[in-house]
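Inputs:
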Amino acid sequence: MSEVTANQHPISMYLKVWLLLFVLSSFSYMVDIFQLQGVLRWTLILIFMFLKAGLIIAVFMHVAWERMALKLILFIPPIAILVFIALMGIEANYVFLNRLLVFITP
Amino acid sequence: MNGNDSDSENVWQSAVSDWSADKQILSMSWGKLMMWIFLLSDTFIFSIFLIGYMSVRMSTTESWPMTSEVFALTIAGHHIPLILIAIMTFILITSSGTMAMAVNFAYQGKKKTAVYLLLLTALLGISFVGMQAFEWTKLIVEEGVRPWSNPMGAAQFGASFFMITGFHGLHVSAGVILLLVVAKRIHQGRYDKKGFQIVEITGLYWHFVDLVWVFIFAFFYLW
């Protein structure tokens, strides 16, 4: 139970994670400062984003010390979001191609 | 299934007894569980906003405005791209750190430290909303961005921007109010007997607001 674990963690752990989040945010900001483009830019943005999100969820929100029953509730439903992203990606691509055909063809 | 009255009654009785049986699936208080359920539903809401943004950005034939230029500021003669958003990101991360420590100190029974940390978290939240108000004002008044048009490129930019950051800003504002209420109640000694799980529950909400910002920062501002 988190009631037990929550006060077992030393404050230093939170400070370390905080520092790590600072560093990761600086890295993602650097991606923009250095004007990285294309696949490299997108990959780096996603890597830093997932690392930051993972740290916040696991440590700050204490999910790492929660029981499996809760983790399942939290992580199974968002799979639907991934499916939705894929569907809308295909749809948006289709709309874009049609707009090109209709707007550009005289 | 069958028309027999007593049989159908048994079927319903069994369903009722199953659902009302004194069983607990998750070993946590209802308050914390309900916060998690709420956060899960909120995840879907923000995902839908971001997916909507993805759709309009992918399907527009006009060029998308350069966010690093739109959100640049000139500070002391230096033109720095995206600087305000970077500062806002650091502020929100810091507030998450102070929140996590507030939870820890509250469970240790150090009420005073917890209250101060909660107030600091709220203060950081207020400064975040303040910067967002500044950003909105700059975009609306100086740059002429509207939900239906803007001078920089694709018209869908304004709608996505105001919807996503506006909804996130509302979440931060609600979080600030929640933090202040909880801090006041701890100070009054309302949780001395009940225990301090309320701080952890408030913390879950606050970290979630920070979490959403991580995704908005990546997809809206950096992409």
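The mean pLDDT of chain B is 90. Flag for discussion at group meeting.
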